[in-house]
Amino acid sequence: IGVRNAGHIGASFDTFQIDSQGRIVNTGILNAEKAMNLTATQDINNQGKIENKQGNIQLRSKAKIENRGSIVARGGNIDKKADSHIQQSGETLAKGNVNYTAPTIHATESSLIAAGVNVTDDAQGETRQLETKSAKGKSIQLTSSRKTTAQGKNIASGGITISASEVNVSQSHTSAHGIEIKTTKDQIQANHATLIADNALSNNTNNIRYST
Predict the structure, then answer these.
(1) Residues facing 71 on adjacent strands
(2) Domain ranges (residues) in the chain
(3) How many CB atoms lie within 10 A of CB 14?
(4) pTM
(5) Rounded CA separation 103/25 (Å)
(6) d(CA 42, CA 20)
(7) Is 68 strand, coil or helix?
């Protein structure tokens, strides 16, 4: 038993919730006025667009979460938690914070993870603007017990924290008020990476492998 959407599902009530005993596959549009909660015992696979105007977006999977499309929280946080793996080649944008938790996290070079973004509609379409960076800005937290790979664009108005056994930010463009990378195996790969921290860039290892 699973949920598959290839069309357009919208909701204007308090909370948009899908609770599946199988997979959740979205190749269309899921949107809501307020909070969105997607929970699955198997994979959650988004190839379309998941968006809300207020409140948080939560994804919970007993297996894998994969985002090849777009997930946008115009007024709140985005929180993804998977028991197996989080995979991303698409985009995740939040007005608030972005949190990923899984044993392994892999965001490819085409991915975008952004926190503290104002998304508005105008005559030309959709406008996205990062709020001014500060210590009180919005944060990105990527937490894994094994390896985290974040090779795309990682942008936050506050801090970016990556905690894992191993971290690979090679080829990435990572920009925030502060950046902290914590590893348990003392290994960080940052080949051809651009890391920009307005305030501080810190890590807990001397073993950083990089090339330009």
Answers:
(1) 50, 92
(2) 84-209
(3) 11
(4) 0.92
(5) 22
(6) 8
(7) coil
Q: Which residue type sits at 128?
A: R
The residue type of 174 is: T
Bridge partners, residue 104, by sequence: 85
**Rounded to the nearest 5°, which phi and psi values hold at 14?**
-60, -55
CA 210 to chain centroid, in Å, comes to 24
Q: Is 72 exposed, middle or buried (0-12, 13-18, 19+ CB in 10 A)?
A: buried
Per-residue tens of pLDDT for the chain, all 212 residues: 467 776 666 665 667 778 888 899 999 999 999 999 999 999 999 999 999 999 999 999 999 999 999 999 999 999 999 999 999 999 999 999 999 999 999 999 999 999 999 999 888 888 999 999 999 999 999 999 999 999 999 999 999 999 999 999 999 999 999 999 999 887 899 999 999 998 867 666 545 555 43
Closest by CA position to 94, among listed 56, 132, 151: 56
- CA dist., res. 52 & res. 47, Å (int): 16
What's the angle, vertex CA 80, arms to CA 119 and CA 130, rounded to 5? 25
